[in-house]
Amino acid sequence: MRSKRLLSVILIIVCIGICFACAKEKPTTKENTTEKQDKEKKEDTDEIINIDEEKLPYTEEEIFDQLFDINNFIQINLDIPKEELAKIQEDYEEYAEMGSKSPIYRKADLEIIIKTETDERTYLIEDVGVRMKGNTSRTDFYNEEDGQYNLIHFKIDFQETFDNEDYYDEPIDWSKDEDGRKERKDRTFATLENIELRWNKCDDSTYIREYMAYEFYREMGLLAQHSNLASTDVTGVHQGVFMIYEPIDKVFIEKYVDEKDQGGDLYKAGWTWNGADLTNKSSVGIEDEDVPEFYNYDLKTNKKTSDLEIMKNLIRRLGNSSISKEEIAEIVDMDYFVKYEAVSYFVGDPDDARNNYNNHYVYFLKSSGKAIFIPCDLDRTFGITKSYNPSGDAMVSISPYSKRAMGTGGEQQRNPLYIKTVCRGGYYVDEYTKALEAAFSAKTFTFKKFEEIYNIAKRNYSSKVIPSKEFYNAEGRNYAFSLERSEGINTDRGNASVEEYLRLKKEYFLGYLEEQK
Hints:
- By secondary structure, the chain is an alpha+beta fold.
- The protein contains 14 helices and 17 strands.
- Helix 10 packs across helix 12.
């Protein structure tokens, strides 16, 4: 009997020990399962996703929204082999010698890291094409001894096939892989065929003036490209905080224009020997960097089918000194144009369509043939005056109805569209005034909204602004986010503060309206 009791005690002790050990382990509850899933998800997000080989975790439209969401952190790693960097430098020298700019893309691999509140994804795009981007910003930038010694803008093409025998010593032979070539020609990332990447050349210490300008246009219902900041490394060299841009191209038009108006001619407007001023001196054509041939209005779509006549007709009809208000409305979407010009007035870019006959696109709506205007290269807005302050006061005291082109030093306005519509005495002054009043009340045109977005950008990128080496064309930068740093509005040594610009621009506009009563 004693032995049976002893055996029972031992069994009870063993059971108690087993239960105690079980109690120390975490029970398999719903909460624990969630933690495990979160851990697996985090491990999964650390993987590099090759977009050519693996299924994307989101749709391309969702990735686009993430890429251009200012709340997210974006990292760009552009890996250009040294031999390809040397070729980009050689391309620059060769085309600069002939007064042109190289169209040749060189090979690189691209990583785009998007960090949202919920996850972090790294997308790898192999064998992208990369070339120098810009007009006046182009410069020598690389040699074998110093590596990259100047900062440059880049255009990155996801669809380059590297098979042009005129450009490449060893062009890729796709003859045995036609399907592969077609896949490459159709390749997109985040719905885009290419992206643009530019450094902070105008030394904007807020880093977001251009971003806010595009937001302003869109708030008013106008077409404008998306942009965002990105911490940028090129071949292992950290180059600071750049800006990425959605390109204005066929994809852009198909994304934002009504279906009935898609398929029209799109022209990029800018300088050749003179500005894109819609006068009979303005040239129209398809640029060819190899000749070279450049035009004030460079056709970007329908290159094989367009006869260029719709652009030439716009110039021709606007050149008629007796053109009526109704006739202008037949060739230009004037409801759109007065809003476009109202926002342009308030962002204060001296290098735009009105003030320097530059930096815009003209698109012709397919259903009506009417022209609309799309801004671009807005790196001199909201008080950017570094090295270029033609009005002498950051454009704050210019009349919205001025008959002068302030970006040219105040010469008489040449563009007949402006003269006949929104300048003093124009047909559309009343409609333009209403558009100005609406734009004046926009949320984007407030320092409160600007500061809100600035603080988001600063939180994401303030630790990323200093490059890992010195660049000659960026000497003198203090590489710090700041709303305060300013040389005032009356100098071109630095930039006016955004708060000062907005205050003075608003004060002048309200005072001007009061004077007109």
